[in-house]
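Researcher: Next sequence.
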Amino acid sequence: MIFLHGWPQIGLMWRAQIEAFASAGWRCIAPDMRGYGGSSAPTASEAYTLNEIVDDMVELHDHLGAQPAVWIGHDWGSPVAGALAAHHRSRSRAVVLISVPYFPESFALPTLIPLIDRRLYPAEQYPDGQWDYYRFYLTHFDQTVNDMDADIPATLASLFRRGNPASAGKVSSSALLTQNGGRYGSTHRAPATAPDPTLWPAEDFDALVEAFRTAGFRPANAWYLNGSANIAYARAAPDSGQLRQPVLFLNSDWDAICDINRSRLGEPMRISCKDLSVTNMPAGHWLPLESKTELVQEIRLWLKTKKL
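Model: Next structure:
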C-alpha cells in the first residue's frame, strides 16, 4: 500500500492507517510528497505539475520493486493516485481516493467550475463557488504564501479542524477569500489557535510544523499553479483516463468543498471509473485524521469484498 498525502500535510499523517495495515501484513509506504517534509522542494512552480509528481511516484515504485500496489490518496494525493492509475495502469492493483474524487481531465479550475452547485453558489455572487480559494491562490500567490508563513503553527492549527455537520449545505468559507481579501483578511496571519490533538498527536503536529518551517508554504501552494499543464497531461492518458481497476471513493459528508452528494462533483468519476465503490463517512475534509479507525475498517471491508 502506498499512501499519498495532500495539502498541507506530510507522510506522517497516515500513522494510524499504516500501523493498522502493517500489523495485518501489508507493506506500507507513505512518502513526503514533492515540496513537503524531507522531499525535495524545487523553486520553480512548473516543478509541481502532476506529470512531475507522478514521475516521482513511478521512481519510488521502481525503487520498491514495482509490484502492483494499492494506491491511497487524500486531498491532492487523490489526483496523484488517480493520474498514476490512468497513466501507469500496470502499477496499480486498486485505488482508494479520499475526500477528492477522480477527475479524468484533472483537478483544475476549468474542470471544477462547471460542476458547482449554482443553487448554493449563484454565478453572479460566487463565480468560482467553493473554489474561490483556488482562484485566489492563482491571483494572489505571494500573499497567500506570506499570510500562511507569518505564523506557521497557527496556520496549521487553524486549517486542521474537525468537520461540523452544521456546515453541510452552507456556503463554505473557501468561497469568500476574494471578498475578504484573503484567508485571514486584513490581519494577513492566522489567528492564534491551539492544535487539535485528536487529529495530530502532539509529537506529529510538532513534526508537521518543523517540516513547514524548512520550506514554508510556497512549494505546497505551487501545486495549485499548473492547471493547464495538468489538463494536458490528463488528456494524454490512455483510454481517455478511464480507470478499470477497482476504485473506492470515501466521501466526507461534512466536507464543505468536496462532498459529492450536494453538487455534481462526483459525475466525472462515476462515468470514468468502471469498478467504483462509494462510501459516505460522517467527517469533514480531513477524514484520515478525523476518522482514523473507521477509515481502516472501510478500506479493509472493501479490500475483502474485492478479494485484494
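Model: The longest strand covers residues 243-252. The chain has a mean pLDDT of 97.
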